[in-house]
Amino acid sequence: VKVKIPFGNKYLDAIFSVPEKKPRYGVILTHGAGGDMNFPHLVSLAVYLASHGVLCLRFTCKGLNVAYRTKAFKAVVEYLKLSDDYKVSGVFLAGRSMGSRAAASVIRQLSQGDDDDGFIQGLVCLSYPLHRPKLHSKLRDEDLLLIRCPVLFVSGSADEMCEKQLLEGVVSQMKAPKKVHWIDKANHGMAVKGRTADDVMEEINAQVFSWLRENVPLEHK
């Protein structure tokens, strides 16, 4: 179901992937610095989640400014929260690459404000860009260290923007419940020599769904 979500004086393009049965919870999903909501990995995950009973709302927000992307993500969270068509008890924020930075930033901002009502249940980071390629001295970890809700990282062990030991170091300092799933030999784009994209996505989708199930409050299951 295609929708347009108000954002300032414009609209964000978005698509709901709706399960057959009324979903209790949802996932909001966005893309990285390039591409849009029709990036194959996002489409694959959205279809998978909807087929397993999870509402998925994916949206496009162009722009390389994380603060701008974060504002857009907040507008989408607000839209879903107030939606009459899709009433969910809680939502997980998910993003690929830069989209996961924006998601982390939204969660940190909302959890520090007075309006933290428990609507956001957790964070899924696909290919979190912990640092620029080869620039290991400056880590983008400030939001991660302040988040308290459960976090799942799915990263490639050969990701040039997320050195394995560096992410594990950050994760060890995080206060939030967290899990890291490494896709063996995958790069930042989740490409693995000798494996098809579909095969890699199956692994990612299954990991995300099983983690969601572990982190949904019992009365929502």
Automatic annotation (TrEMBL):
Matches recorded under InterPro entries: AB_hydrolase_fold, KANL3/Tex30_Abhydrolase, NSL3/Tex30
Q: Please list the residue ranges annotated as the KANL3/Tex30 alpha/beta hydrolase-like domain.
A: 26-209
Pfam families the record matches: Abhydrolase_11 (PF20408)
Q: What is the protein's given name?
A: TEX30 protein
UniProt organism field: Picathartes gymnocephalus (White-necked rockfowl)
Q: What is the lineage of its organism?
A: Eukaryota, Metazoa, Chordata, Craniata, Vertebrata
